[in-house]
Amino acid sequence: MLPQIDTISHPVSRRDYPSLLCGAIAPLFTPERLDGRIDYEGLQSLADHLCRQSAVSALLIRTGEGRMWSYSLEEARQAIQCVLDVARHRKPVIAGTAGIWTGECSDSPRPAVYYRRAVELSEWALASGAAAVLQPVPAFLTGGYDYTPQDRILRFFEDLAQSVNGPIVIYNQEHLPEGHALLPESLARLSQHRQFVGAIYYTHDSSILAELVRCCHPRFSVVSGYDSLAIPAFMGGATSSAGTLATLLPEVIDTAWRSLATPDLSVAWRAQTDLLKIREMLAPYQGPDIGCAVLARQGLHMAPRSRAAGRQPLRIDIERVSREIGHIRAAYG
Question: pTM (2 decimals)?
Answer without folding.
Answer: 0.94
